[in-house]
Amino acid sequence: MARITLRQLLDHAAEHGYGVPAFNINNMEQGLAIMEAARACDAPVIIQASRGARSYANDIMLAKMMEALTEIHPAIPLCIHQDHGNNEATCLSAIRNGFTSVMMDGSLMADAKTPASYEYNVAITERVGRMAHWVGASVEGELGVLGSLETGQGEAEDGHGAEGALSHDQLLTDPDQAVDFVTATRVDALAIACGTSHGAYKFSRKPDGGILAMQLIEAIHEKLPNTHLVMHGSSSVPQELQDIINNYGGEMPQTFGVPVEEIERGIRYGVRKVNIDTDCRMAMAGQFRRVATEDPREFDPRKFLKPAMDALRDLCRDRFERFGTAGHASKIRVIAMDEMAKRYAAGKLDPHIATAKAA
């Protein structure tokens, strides 16, 4: 089996200058399509599940499905990641169910909608990190609150997201605070807030520096050149997918996502993990609508799901290739979690917190 921890995968990505898309899933068809795309272009994979996905699919089903995916594609390193864990119990239950990596999102309280204090975030993220590292699992933390710089509002997805108005300071990660946070928590990856948000309706126009602060990524990378950065809410919401949905009866208003070229820019400045969910949903939903419209008599779910899987596979392969992930799966020698645990215990995985000044 080729399960890999987030830390090992992102260390490899940093060494070779690429980023890794992290695709959210809820079901078998998504997993099969993502892994087929990875196999086709020799790319390592991050598959992640939110608390909502775990509730929908059931932890036992997800665990067995992940096991099956690694057996079907044993040559593909697969990181299984808990997305937006809201407390210690969520993260630890994920690890017990075979996840190799967890995100402790301490930017929000356990209700997953109330912005938390910096002190709370540091304390709970450090606790989860310490416990996860005991068994070799990786930890992603978040500093800053995901939300729109255009509207000053958060955006919920799968029950996770800030509610109400957010200040400019909350919506943008402070570079100096990022140094303190990474040093205090010893996270393996840092999700930052730079204007991206969950869902399809991120921007009302093609984003520029006023509503998508890519320059902030560069500033944080300058201070933390060895820290793996994460962009959440980074679906590109392609126009062609909007058009397919609307051409077959959908009513999506015009919207804009994060341009792929901006993500590529982020990868040049330390972004190693890029979360993508909405694009995957849109690719599949467009095919559901197309089949239903072109053949209203069709009732076999497979006739809907097969073209949907093909569309998702093509989307994923495009992201693997654009982010530079393609061609690297076969170059990675996967390290077992118990060996990673020994390295954490020996302090061999700490240098990623080094600052530019110290370097």
The CATH class designation is: Alpha Beta
Q: How is the main sheet built? A: 8 strands, parallel, barrel
The 3D shape can be described as globular
CATH topology descriptor: TIM Barrel
Give the number of DSSP strands: 8
Terminal CA distance reads 37 Å
Helix content: 40-55%
Report the radius of gyration as a whole number of Å. 19 Å
The DSSP helix count reads 14
Order of helices and strands: HEHEHHEHEHEHHEHEHHEHHH
CATH architectural group: Alpha-Beta Barrel
Structure class: alpha/beta
When the domains are counted, the total is 1
Verbal overview:
The chain has one domain: TIM Barrel (Alpha-Beta Barrel), CATH 3.20.20. It is 45% helix and 12% strand. The protein contains 14 helices and eight strands. β4, α6 and β5 form a beta-alpha-beta unit. The longest helix is centred in the C-terminal third of the chain and has 22 residues, at 301-322. α2 (28-41) crosses α13 (301-322) and α10 (239-247) packs parallel to α12 (278-294). The protein is globular. By secondary structure, it is an alpha/beta fold. Strands 1-2-3-4-5-6-7-8 form an eight-stranded parallel barrel, surrounded by nine helices. Residues 355-359 have low confidence and may be disordered.
